[in-house]
Amino acid sequence: MRRLRFVVGALLAVCWIAPLSAQQGTGTISGRVTDASTKQPIAGAMVTYGTHNTQASADGNYVLAGIAPGTDTLHVKMIGYAPHAEAVTVTAGQISVVNVAMTQRAVTLSQIVVVGYGQQRAGDVTGSVKQINSADFNKGQIVSPQALIQSKVAGVQVIDNNAPGGGLSVRIRGTTSVNASSEPIYVVDGVVLAPGGGLSTTGDPLNFLNSDDIASITVLKDAAAASIYGANAANGVVLITTKTGHGAPHITYSTSVSASSVTRVPSVLNASQFAAAVAQYAPSRVSMLGSANTDWFNQVEQTGWGQQQNIAIAGSGNENSYRLSLGYLKQNGIIKNNSTQRLSVGLNFDQRLLNDDLQLRANVAGSRTFEQQVPGDVLGNAVTMAPTQPVVDSTSASGYWDWNTSGAAPSNPVASNNLSDNHGITWRSVGNVQGDYKLPFLRALRVHVNLGYDFTQADYEGFAPSILADQSRALHGQLNLSNSSQMNQLLEVYGEYEAPLSPHAGRITLQGGYAYSKSHAEYPSFSETNLASDLLGTNGVPGSSQPPVVNKTVTDSKLISFFGRMNYNLNDEYLLSALVRRDGSSKFGPSNAWGVFPAFSAAWRISKEPFLSGISALSDLKLRASWGKTGNEAFADYQQYPTFTYSNTQAQYQFGNQFITTIRPSAVDPNIKWEATTTTDFGADFALFGSRVSGSFDWYRKNTSGLIFTVPVAAGTNFSNYLTTNIGSMRNQGVELALNTALFQSSERGGFNWEADFTASHNSNELTSITSTGSQLIQVGGIAGGVGSTIQVLEPGVPVNSFYVCPQAYDGSGKPIEGQYIDTTGATVNACDASALRPYHNPAPSWILGHTSSMTMGSFDLSFTLRAYLGNYVYNNVASANGAYQNTTNGGAPANMSSSVLQTGFVVPQFTSDIYVESGSFLRMDNITLGYSFHLQGAPTRVFVTVQNAFTITGYSGVDPTAGVNGIDNNIYPRSRTVTGGLRVQF
Amino acid sequence: MNLRALKAPAVLAAALMVVVAAGCTDTTVAPKSTVTNANVFKDQNAYEQLIARVYSGLAVSGQQGPAGNPDIQGIDEGFSQYLRLYWELEELPTDEAVIGWNDQGLPPLNTDTWTAQSRMVVAMYYRIFFQVVMANEFLRETSDSALATRPAISGALKAKISQYRAEARFLRALSYWHGIDLFGSIPLVTDSSAIGGAPPAQASRSDLYNYVVSELQAIKDSLPANTPDNYGRATAGADEMLLAELYLNAGVYTGTPDYADALTAAQNVINNYGYTLDPSYRHLFEADNNKSPEIIFPITQDGQNTQTYGGVTFLAHAACGGSMNAGDYGIDYCWGGTRLKQQAYNLYAPNDPRASYFYTTGQTVDVGTIGDFTSGVAAPKFINMTSGGQPGSNPTFVDTDFPLFRLGEAYLIYAEAELRGGGGDATTALNYINALRVRAYGDSSAVVPADSLTLQFVLNERGRELLWEAHRRTDLIRFGMFSGGSYNWAWKGGVAAGTSISACRDIFPLPASEIVANPNLKQNAGACTQ
User: Fold this and answer.
1) Burial class (CB in 10 A: 0-12, 13-18, 19+), B80
2) Which of A354, A550, A663, A769 to mutate to test the interface with B (most CBs of B within 10 A)?
């Protein structure tokens, strides 16, 4: 018995002693984990030593206790930083202090980017995606959100419109369609907007969004990223995310004032040059001329003042966050009586319930925009109205001077601008409610429901009084009213499952969902001419001798989708993604009602491979490849149904003594479907020297087939000899390079920092075929002047919308010989006809270069954005339509001419001469901003001055080389230089 | 049982119900603001409106008069009108007419030098098939199976529809006759061919002939009666007349003449349907010719309600020019285009009243210069003046209908068929010819004796009686005098005095664009392509 006790006692002693001796014999490692460059602590860093591990606390400190003496490796890991490993020796009873400074590795890796139906870490993305955050947006007086990312994203061309709030066009990787829309799809907080952005009578449909409310804009460029949107995604997808509340409740107020002035107007003859031209070419009309010296552009232009006021209240608590914003913008145009005004409201509310398992989110954006528009003839008449005539005439009915003739003649642009009234009012609201629920019994699965709406009421009222000169010659007063409205509703449901793929390595994310959207639009319109009275303007309907034209159209459409996505991530090193979307649209014919859009992509983080991990400068290099199909359904509704048109009274047929109205079915392709684009993309994302230099490179090829064209069909197969059907094909191919560099990085606060970003994109477009049998040539690109004149061509083998002109013949001294051209054999011919016409350049730029620099020093910040287009061409229609002395003899009165006539000496307009196709390459300083940050009674404040369009260097002789989508400068709105000053304070 | 375990399937079931309730995998949306074939026949007037459209295809150029919403694209709308094209192809290449305009596709018609790309030839082909497809659509939409899918219709409407169906088949047969006559072997497209289907294959000229003849025989008794209320519509008389035209030319279409049937058909037209010769020759071509007892099938025009820049508006305006006063013809101004070639002018005896309206002041007889209106005698045959001397209701668009078939021609068909051994009676034939001459002269001064009645005389009499009524090319080909050198007229073959032209000119080529668009078509071997 005593032996048993001894044994037990000894065992117990051993048990007690062992830990005691262990305690006495273990060591501790502790220290602080910080960022090597910013010296800030890194919370949450994983510290591992042998089997011990812990996480660094908020201040970066960590403790590992109870470690057996010896030497082992201490590993410290944190996303966005290079893993740190060092050997540490632990001595019993001692604390080893190991402070770790971690070097940043491509910070962008951990950035969360918005992708379709969810989010991903930038490091995990296998497609071509670029996100711009609000800090990097373009600065200044910005009305339309697309302008915020102009020149910031490689492969994206934002085509300017100089009118305040004017509609912008966006091209992602070139033009993808001819007869359907080429605009990308816009998604605002998960609500997919109608193709083109929606309905509007006040400029760009996206103007309803206050730029101040936008947190980030993401562009999905290739099929792997965009295919999740299926039949709408062929032109790329732009995701807009609005700001949410963060931190303690605070109010942000910003205000700015801006002034815009004209930079360039078309160059026309002055009074003495004009009088000399009339004397030489129309001597009988010299007596008609006055003795004034009027600069008509000067008469209609003004300094455009503008202001913007934004106030936002935002904050977040433990379980919720909110942001409410109000904004007011007014921008006067640089043409008199032209302005746009917007009142906008935005609300975001986020609530977490059930232990953060359920997240509810509501977003609402609403606005009312009022736009006073320039009557359509003002800019043209400012060119052609004779400079020898006065502006006012107290003896005339309108009070303004005008030619007294019944023949065609220019009219007084000041009169038209002041006496006409064209305005649009758009009410728009986009909103949604989202619910995200993480199933408590299956944590890896979450279910997401999104209910959204998009409502627009776009009214337009236009009035031209009968006393205006061109009204008195033709329509005798005009009244146009329309009240279009559109309501879109959206329901999306998806489930996402994310978990380690045990027993195999890596993580897998599976997503499956359903989306249903429908749209209802109504377009009532009223128009009346020959008004009995001018007194009512747009507020009433005066009588008329002609019956008014009243019309109403209702269109409905539906889009139903099923989608699924799989992402596989092995150690952040091998990434695989596959997605498929099945879309059914009411626009497709019954045999093609559903389309399938798959995409596959893969990425390889090659910098993690052993053969590259030795290169310390290379922080990250990810190679990616993708292939996928997307569709374009942005064409008119009901194309698959033969519609019956009623004949008018003058096309009836006689049966006996009666006349019978006839009905005629239209020619249709009952199998019409989407235009299909297949995109292949090879790219690389890289980061060097930590995050000092990062960027991406892409090579892509997009093949589009089934382009919709109206082409001849075999007689006897349809109701007409031409049919609108899917038949053409097009190819876009190019490269993109984006580079973000931190040129100067100061380690001290207040030091000089300079971040420079560069983007370069090159796209080459080719229309590869129109019909499958034989070649076709379609002439497009209507211009002013002549009857039905066109200046562009759609021809297989050349880029879309290539200019179709004849090479001008010149004499020995370099002066053009009027009416003489060089044909395709090199001989000189006397007419610009089929033997001499050929495709010659096109409006799309060959290279788009962008550069943004942001510098900070102390409390000052300076940034500027430069943009260059190379290889785009513009057809100067102002010079071609008015560049001939025939303007003095035409019509009922002499019209002024473009100063090109002094160089060419043309007497008869030569519309199709290539002398008018000018190079539009330019370098433009888009904006320069200088700001100063300080604290105003404790509230962070920033004052700034911004100049937009500081200068443009171009060889183009017209108003603006960015002359609209199709490159035809036909009296476009002049470009302005805007200076904005303002302040932003948060308290 | 753990309640929590139920949660998983419960939640999934709820989710599924949400999806199913949201309901839809149906993407069909019917249009509301346009009338489609889903709802057009809910209005029972639509049947009449659709058959009226098949008729108006001969008279107008689109759904908007005078121009707008055209039927045929790729050509000026006024140029694309059916009657204008048919007249140009039947008259300009012959000894009867010349036009002085430069519109693309017109000059080669004057000189028999057209190609497979000549625009008027191409447009006529599309016009013929526009008519065929429209008639087929009417037949499809009024078939028993189509009517069964709609609400029941009254017996009266059913009877009307069956008449309309016969009329649609007549109009289809009429256009196929034009197609056989002008182009030879063309595709046969019937109402059993679906819209948007495979490009149709060609049928031979004789197969098409047999089809058209069988159609006309089948529908004859279902067509409306010849009453004033049915003016403008196809009647049994029109059907028989069209059969007479086909039988008369059977030798050209099939290689086997059928003059016996031509004679019988002509006899039936003359005896059975109540048509009589109009006492005034001129009245047949005046603004109120809808009152004429002689017209069997017109293409109606109306200055207020059936307006076009083609049709008789073209015929009336183009024939006026030079020193002519537009107001004398009831029109607003002269377009100055068409005149007679001297051979047609010289067919007339100096005192033939059928030439009394010719305008010779300042006009030469010989067509020396095609482009000069004063070169060649002007022949304003179709005028916008009523028989009472009043102008029509609209100076721009005429009220004058075009007599596609009239009784006078039936007399000539009888005479020619009799001379060619089709049976009948020589005395009757002579009496018919003389009836025309008595009507023309107003007395018996120009009556011809029996021995004058030769085939050449009949051809010449056709030239005098039916001048500019779109028969000449068909007649010359039937007589073997169109191609070859046996009969040369001004500018034939591009030479001022006329020269021999190849036999390939007896048919027009299939449009080159059609050969490209329809891989099942082969260019007709007998046609000239350049």
Assistant:
1) buried
2) A663
